[in-house]
Amino acid sequence: MKVIINADDFGYSNGVNYGIIDAYKNGILTSTTCLTNMPGFTHAIHLAKENPGLGIGIHLTLTCGKPLSKNSYSLADSDGNFRSLSHYDGKFYIDVDELYFEWKAQIEKFLSTQLIPTHLDSHHHVNNLEMVKPVFLKLASEYQLPIRNNLGDKNDYPEYKMVDYFEYHPENILNSIENIKEKYKAYEAIEIMCHPAYIDKFLRDHSSFVMPRIEELAFLTSDHAIKTFTTANGISLINYSEL
């Protein structure tokens, strides 16, 4: 079984970046996805270039920070920030052309670093919203990038490269190898999402998801994780470039 352990939010802040790098260097993390519009972006790219074995994709955002493109009126609030996730819980309107050009700008900013992205996913899984999904899939096709399989049945998207199963709950890493094999026995390749970080002031002040991040960092670097996710146990740790 091939397993991708992916950390969301690379580039959010320096504390998040350092946590992700430690989870890679000292634990079982293999992959991350980068926010290109957040204060930690430049720091993240510096760390990425120092750790070329870490797979790095692009974490497209519609709900965090500010747009990169100027004409994103339907995507931003009166202060120029992306709207919160709760805005999209009910009826909403966005200009899909504005979204396309905004997300294209986020991808192009990552490409400007000369790094090669491994895949695309999205912050808060907004790529799954009815109006958003076609834009997400169009960009994945345009840039020929694998995508996170949070869309449902893989067979419904045969033209896209993705894993067989997406795991939302990283605490499954704490299970015994027997339970892990049983849970995922039907799949050849899976992704386990996580959010490791060290807590810095920016993360504390701006995110609603803070304390669990240090817990995730702890179990990603634990002896249990390192001893469980091994080839001897039938698990190959990979990133999206090896899919």
Strand and helix layout:
Elements: E1 2-10, H1 14-25, E2 31-34, H2 41-50, E3 55-60, H3 96-111, E4 120-122, H4 133-143, E5 165-167, H5 177-183, E6 189-194, H6 201-206, H7 211-220, H8 223-228, E7 236-237
Parallel strand pairs: 1-2, 1-6, 1-7, 2-3, 3-4, 5-6
Helix pairs in contact: 1-2, 1-7
- Please report the total strand number as a whole number: 7
Average pLDDT confidence is 97
**Helicity, as a percent range:** 25-40%
Enumerate how many helices there are, as a single number.
Answer: 8
Q: What is the CA-atom radius of gyration, in angstroms?
A: 17 Å
Q: What is the C-level CATH assignment?
A: Alpha Beta
Spans of at least 5 consecutive residues whose pLDDT stays below 50 are: none
Morphology? globular
What's the CATH H-level homologous superfamily?
Answer: Glycoside hydrolase/deacetylase
Q: What is the H/E order?
A: EHEHEHEHEHEHHHE
Q: In terms of structural class, how would the helical and strand content be classed?
A: alpha/beta
Question: Can you characterise this structure?
Answer:
The chain has 243 residues and is an alpha/beta fold. It has a single domain (2-242), classed as Alpha-Beta Barrel (TIM Barrel), CATH 3.20.20.370. Helices cover 32% and strands 14% of the residues. It is built from 8 helices and 7 strands; from the N terminus they run βαβαβαβαβαβαααβ. The chain has helices spanning 14-25, 41-50, 96-111, 133-143, 177-183, 201-206, 211-220, 223-228, and strands at residues 2-10, 31-34, 55-60, 120-122, 165-167, 189-194, 236-237. Strands 1, 2, 3, 4, 5, 6 and 7 form a 7-stranded parallel β-sheet that branches. α1 packs parallel to α2 and α1 (14-25) packs parallel to α7. The protein is globular and about 50 Å long. The chain starts with a strand and ends in a 6-residue tail after the last strand. The mean pLDDT is 97.
